[in-house]
Structure formats: structure tokens, C-alpha cells
Amino acid sequence: MVLSKKLSRAVRERRQNIGVILRLVFCFPLGLYQMWTATKWPRLVKVGVSALVAFLILVILTPLTDPPARQVGGIRVVGDRLQVDVLGPEAPEDREIVEIYTPHRTAIVVEPTPTPEPILVYVNNGGHYYHAKECRYVTERTPAVTLAQAISANYTRCPECDAPIAVAD
């Protein structure tokens, strides 16, 4: 009875070892995990198997090709003159040589244009006209707005004062 228990345990361990080896070959991550957790193999064997799997992965993933070799000689000059065939009669020797294009360097001067001061007019709430500052309808509390704002709000020029005239752009 004791012999049969030892024999059945040995058979189970052997089957387990075969299963771990098959997993190492066909599914190495699972095989490595089971090798380290479920087997009673010596630590040196486990380290050796792990190193062998890592080496095989490195060999498989690293391409075994050499980079292309450089050719000796570097740059080859093909020609140093324009290769153009000129067709037509010969030009006379005493002809005048005319420059076709001569680039001239000119300085570009940029002067800032001053921003014009806005023209202020005065409008009364509820009124229809915009006024000059000196108009009799303007008080201390009369709001000042720009001429453009007054025109866009449909105010018209006061007929009694010297209010500025809107100039079309």
C-alpha cells in the first residue's frame, strides 16, 4: 500500500513535470510561472531554464541581418559644367552684354501710423440727436460716446449745434 502511494505520487509528479515542460515549449509564460510555483525542481535548474527562455526570445526577436555596407568612395562628381546644347547662329563678338537680372537691396522702412483719436459726441437717453460738447442740451451727466457708436445707435446730428458730421469710410 505504501509502495503504491509512492508510485502514484511519482507518476503524478512525472505527469506534472511533463505538463510543465510542454507548457514551457508551447506557452512559455504559463510554463515559466508553473515551473517556479508548482514544481520541486532545484533553484539552479529553474534559473537555467528561465535564462534559456530569455535567450531564445532575444534571438527570435532580434533580426540576424547585417546593416548594408557603405560603398567606398563617397560622392561621385558627374560633371561640373552645364550640359546644354545651344542651337542657332553664333553671336557677334562686338555685341553689347546686357544684365538681365540684377538684384538690388533696398531698405524697407515701416513707419507706424498713429491711431486716430475717437471723435466724442454726447447723447441724451431717450433723445434722437447727438450733440457737440458746447450744445445747450449737454449737461454734466450727459453720457459721451464715439461718433461711430452714436450713428450705429441711429442717432442723427443735432440741427442746433456744431456737432461733427459723420464721414463714410
Provide a descriptive summary of the structure in words.
This protein is an alpha+beta fold and 169 residues long. Among the domains are: 2-61, no CATH class; 120-157, no CATH class. It is 36% helix and 7% strand. It has 4 helices and 4 strands; from the N terminus they run H-H-H-E-E-E-H-E. A hairpin with a 5-residue loop joins strand 1 (120-123) and strand 2 (129-131). The mean pLDDT is 80.
Concise structural overview:
The chain is built from 4 helices and 4 strands; from the N terminus they run αααβββαβ. The protein has 169 residues and is an alpha+beta fold. Among the domains are: 2-61, no CATH class; 120-157, no CATH class.
What's the layout of helices and strands?
Blueprint: H1 2-26, H2 28-38, H3 43-61, E1 120-123, E2 129-131, E3 144-146, H4 147-152, E4 156-157
Parallel strand pairs: 2-4
Antiparallel strand pairs: 1-2, 1-3
Helix pairs in contact: 1-2, 2-3
Which strand order do you get reading across the main beta sheet? Answer: 3-1-2-4
Low-confidence segments, ≥5 residues, pLDDT <50?
A: none
Number of helices: 4
End-to-end gap: 115 Å
